[in-house]
Amino acid sequence: MENKLKRKTAIQMLGVAMVSIIMLFAGLTSAYVISTNREDWVSFNLPNAFYISTLLIVLGSISFILAKKAIKKDKKQQTSLFLILSLLFGLGFVISQFFGFKELIDAGLYFTGAQSNIATSFIYVITVTHLVHVLASVIVLMYIVYKQILGRYSKDNYLGIELGSIFWHFLDILWIYLFFFFYFIR
What we know:
Elements: H1 2-35, H2 48-72, H3 76-106, H4 118-149, H5 159-184
Helix pairs in contact: 1-4, 1-5, 2-3, 2-5, 3-4, 4-5
């Protein structure tokens, strides 16, 4: 009974956090849409690295799904492998985002300063805000991998993996939304 209550409470708390994040990005993307009507709005193509980022975060979600399935079957080595893969895909996402920022800078699209514009400032703010959440998720995933290696998870006790998975999938869906948002709304 206590374990079910702990799980229910943890999932509800995570849900509240995710709703808060949704509200944050709804506000940011709404401001972006409104700003597209400005006379000084500049349209630009997404960096190629953002396409790679999208693939990496989706692969991270797939490996997280496989990790969760493996722990439910008490396949601890497979769980560890898939969690480590998720971690590597997450780190790859972070790295590719920085390559995307470099592409923007190389194209003369800056966050601030005399050469910046509102459009590029928005893309930096929104993507960096998402990136901060992914970095938090990567840190959590490091802790999950650590606990998994210590043997703390089993088919009867995998709440940490479950919560990490929910948040990772949420960030995945959020990034896909942001990617298509920036792709179609220029």
